[in-house]
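User: Could you check the structure of this?
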Amino acid sequence: MGAIGPLQLVLVAVVALLLFGGRGRISSIMGDMAKGIRSFRSGLKDDSAEDVSSEKDDMVNITPEKKSDET
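Assistant: Sure, the predicted structure tokens are below.
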């Protein structure tokens, strides 16, 4: 097998800091991630709602009216 390199040591140190770095560290990281995802989704919903409403306002009926021949 191979020797442990500096990248593996850094990875182990980061994981150890996340696990043992303090009380509620992982839960706070996951909470921040959930808030970010939630705000991203709400931003997408807001943009799509504005796009739909602006499309309805910009629509113009260009269909010619039928002429009724009463002769």
